[in-house]
Write a structure and sequence with these properties.
The complex is a heterodimer of chains A (about 300) and B (about 270). Chain A is built from 13 helices and no strands. With about 300 residues, chain A is mainly alpha-helical. Classes of the chains: A mainly alpha (about 300), B mainly alpha (about 270).
């Protein structure tokens, strides 16, 4: 009997491993090996015909730390994250509260909020180009109605990053909205009734009851928004290409440029490792939070 | 007071909605008007399809559409097969080291394929898949996210059904195909919608691994077509943009509820 059970267990283990093989091969090829290879190649110099690659340790990292462009890019990305994350979350929450309340044209409103989510970032960039073009663009024409001068939104360092940020917020808010909307619909209606009986104002009800109940959703969205602030860079290719004078260059774009325009893979690798570290920290935060959430249940 | 605040709410919500779709509306407007009419916002000006004609002749769009269509299909089939097998293993088969391997898989959630572009590019070239649709799709097939999703779906299948099928003489593969997969249909549908819209819209990675019109998907084609260096005017860019988002946009408007449900189901874990 025992022998039979052992055999059965071994057979199951073999099934398990066989079922996992395709996933394991592909994950190794396109996630694990590349991560290790990136770390490895970030510690070697870029080979030229005269100077073959050699081990430089933290050399590439030091180069980056003394490169003003790198710090500008980091600063841009922090600014990009610092604005897009809270702004898109705030807009998403407002959208959800509206889309969940008794308003007219609810169907239209929901569709309008969500539509940018299904568009490619490249298409979104093309749409916004029509807004930002100096002279002919929609923004300039609206400004002209009020006698404002023409502004080259994408062409000057003071406004270009803001223009990029607006496109990102426009793209992701509707996506975040649906998570808030779903969470709002799980709030029991008797809470609202009780609050009304107590004479609580709508603001009090929202602040003291709705927002605390939305906290897990808020954290979930925050993590997604953080990842997006690293990932969403496609529109740069259309709108600014990182310019003018690097004012809209974000890290992932810089990695791409370093590797595929300047053919400097080692420095791109060093930056990739730093991004992976940041993503790892976000992951740790999320694991911590997921742990907590299971305690609630 | 209550009525007033309700009207204010409606007004605010609709105003924001109008602002939100304005970029799309302006693109529609521009696409159907000549450039001068488009930028002058003359409401009575003549509608025209010339922009679409010029845009259509300006690039091999049919090819791009085909490539995108094939790409999302390849990715989806690959994802279905791989995540089904792995999700089933994690949900219903016991083997040593399962928890540890599962955590390894979950790690990939944070190693974004977008970030590993340099080494993934090297890997795809090494495998001889540079400038092929398989090369574009392959890094996304073993999606940790999909594996997680399938594991959850399979875990909720009652074990009695599994046992009943085994008594009827089904092997493990038969059980998987005849019991688990049909019961996980809503998850497959949700995953499919999210996957298709993600890969229809993906840009950076296809930009890197494709190098010719025979593999370029729509997004990459559109970015080349609309590049400012090419000096294409705004009406024609708008027409090309509308054209390339039309299939997904129409699908979304028709199946809106399913799309939203899909994003929710795959988002809230």
């Amino acid at each position: 009997m025992n022998k039979y059970a052992n055999q059965e267990r071994r057979r199951r283990a073999i099934y398990g491993y066989l079922l996992l093989t395709p996933a394991a091969v592909l994950l190794s090829l396109f996630a694990f090996y590349p991560s290790v290879a990136t770390l490895w190649s970030s510690m070697f110099s870029r080979g030229t015909r005269r100077h073959p690659t050699e081990f430089v340790g933290a050399g590439n990292y030091n180069d980056l730390f003394s490169d003003p462009t790198f710090w500008l890019v980091v600063k841009n990305n922090l600014f990009y994250a610092g604005i897009t994350i809270p702004l898109s979350m705030f807009i998403a929450l407002s959208m959800a509260l509206w889309a969940n309340s008794k308003i007219s044209a609810k169907g239209f409103v929901r569709t309008a909020y969500f539509t940018p989510t299904v568009l490619p970032m490249i298409a979104a960039a093309n749409l916004w180009l029509f807004f930002y073009t100096p002279g002919l663009g929609v923004l300039d024409q609206i400004g002209a109605l009020f006698g404002l001068p023409s502004v080259n939104w994408l062409g000057q360092p003071e406004t270009a990053l803001w223009a990029i940020i607006i496109v990102t917020v426009w793209k992701e808010s509707g996506f975040f909205m649906i998570f808030y909307l779903a969470a709002l619909q799980t709030i029991p209606t008797d809470l609202k009734e009780a609050a009304d009986l107590e004479g609580a104002s709508r603001w009090t009800y929202t602040r003291r009851i709705v927002l605390p109940l939305l906290m897990p959703t808020t954290l979930f969205i925050a993590v997604n928004a953080m990842i997006n602030s690293v990932k969403l860079i496609d529109h740069l290719f259309i709108l600014t290409k990182g310019g003018p004078s690097d004012s809209t260059k974000l890290i992932l774009y810089y990695i791409w440029e370093m590797a595929f325009a300047f053919f400097d893979a080692p420095h791109a690798a060093a930056m990739t490792i730093m991004v992976l570290l940041v993503l790892g920290i976000i992951a740790a935060v999320q694991f911590f939070y997921m742990d907590k959430r299971t305690h609630y249940q | 007071m209550n009525r007033l605040s309700r009207h204010l709410d409606s007004f605010g919500a609709i105003l924001l909605a109008v602002i939100w779709i304005a970029p799309l509306l302006f693109a529609f407007w521009a696409a159907f008007h000549s450039t001068t009419d488009a930028v002058n916002f003359n409401l009575t000006s003549r509608l025209t399809l010339d922009n679409f004609r010029v845009a259509w002749d300006g690039a091999p769009w049919l090819r791009y559409f085909m490539n995108t269509f094939l790409l999302v299909t390849i990715v989806l089939i690959g994802q279905f097969i791989i995540t089904t097998l792995a999700g089933f293993a994690f949900a219903q088969v016991s083997f040593p080291g399962k928890d540890f391997i599962f955590i390894l898989v979950l790690l990939q959630l944070f190693i974004l394929p977008e970030v590993l572009i340099v080494e993934n590019y090297a890997m795809v070239s090494r495998l001889g898949l540079f400038d092929s649709l398989l090369g574009v799709g392959m890094p996304y097939m073993a999606s940790a996210f999909g594996i997680f999703l399938m594991r959850q779906a399979f875990k909720s299948v009652p074990i009695e059904l599994d046992e009943a099928a085994r008594i009827e003489g089904c092997g493990w593969f038969g059980v998987l195909l005849k019991v688990y997969v049909p019961l996980a249909k809503p998850t497959y549908l949700a995953y499919a919608l999210v996957s298709v819209s993600t890969h229809w819209n993906n840009f950076l990675w296809p930009l890197i691994v494709t190098n010719s019109d025979k593999t370029r998907p729509l997004t990459v084609g559109l970015s080349i077509f609309g590049a400012p260096e090419n000096g294409v005017d705004i009406s024609i860019i708008s027409a090309a943009t509308i054209m390339s988002v039309a299939p997904l946009l129409i699908a979304f408007l028709v199946f809106q509820r399913q799309f939203v449900q899909a994003f929710l189901r795959t988002g809230i874990k």
